[in-house]
From TrEMBL:
<feature type="transmembrane region" description="Helical">
    <location>
        <begin position="6"/>
        <end position="26"/>
    </location>
</feature>
<dbReference type="GO" id="GO:0016020">
    <property type="term" value="C:membrane"/>
</dbReference>
<comment type="similarity">
    <text>Belongs to the EamA transporter family.</text>
</comment>
<keyword id="KW-0472">Membrane</keyword>
<dbReference type="Pfam" id="PF00892">
    <property type="entry name" value="EamA"/>
</dbReference>
<keyword id="KW-1133">Transmembrane helix</keyword>
<feature type="domain" description="EamA">
    <location>
        <begin position="4"/>
        <end position="140"/>
    </location>
</feature>
<feature type="transmembrane region" description="Helical">
    <location>
        <begin position="101"/>
        <end position="117"/>
    </location>
</feature>
<protein>
    <submittedName>
        <fullName>EamA family transporter</fullName>
    </submittedName>
</protein>
<feature type="transmembrane region" description="Helical">
    <location>
        <begin position="123"/>
        <end position="141"/>
    </location>
</feature>
<feature type="transmembrane region" description="Helical">
    <location>
        <begin position="71"/>
        <end position="89"/>
    </location>
</feature>
<keyword id="KW-0812">Transmembrane</keyword>
<feature type="transmembrane region" description="Helical">
    <location>
        <begin position="33"/>
        <end position="51"/>
    </location>
</feature>
<dbReference type="InterPro" id="IPR000620">
    <property type="entry name" value="EamA_dom"/>
</dbReference>
<dbReference type="InterPro" id="IPR037185">
    <property type="entry name" value="EmrE-like"/>
</dbReference>
Length: 142
């Protein structure tokens, strides 16, 4: 099995638990506080992982590659907004309906990757994206 597929599946499993654990842990908190706590825990965890791997020796590259750093800032803001909106939706909605709508990000990512990165997609890929969109909507609006 290809390495990208293994890590992609691990990401999907991890993301699933994020949604489940958030739903379990958000009962008595505001979505904003829950998102902040989760972000702090993730930051501490990832700093420990980066420190263990010796990644902080590459911090000077942030200055060298300003454009990359700018995009990482935008990615961080987008991720924070995504988590916040997900937490707001989970606070008031049913997990089984919120999760598929959140996964419409897959469809949006494919469309943007075709438009911006000029990535090619096969007919099977197009059909798959349409099925993801339709499936997400069918489940969420059931």
């Amino acid at each position: 099995m290809a390495q990208w597929l293994i890590f992609g599946l691990l990401a999907a499993v991890s993301a699933s638990f994020v949604t489940i654990f958030t739903k379990l842990g958000i009962h008595h908190l505001t979505p904003t506080l829950a998102t902040s706590v989760r972000a702090m825990i993730m930051a501490v965890f990832l700093v420990i992982v980066s420190a263990t791997k010796g990644d902080f020796g590459h911090l000077k590259e942030l200055v060298t590659y300003k454009k990359d750093f700018g995009f990482l800032i935008l990615a961080g803001i987008s991720g924070a907004l995504s988590w916040l909106f997900l937490n707001i939706a989970l606070k008031t909605g049913k997990t089984w309906q919120v999760a598929p709508i959140d996964k419409l990000s897959v469809v949006m990512t494919v469309i943007v990757s075709i438009l911006i990165f000029q990535e090619e997609i096969t007919l099977k890929g197009i059909i798959g994206v349409i099925l993801i969109a339709a499936g997400s909507l069918f489940v969420a609006l059931a």
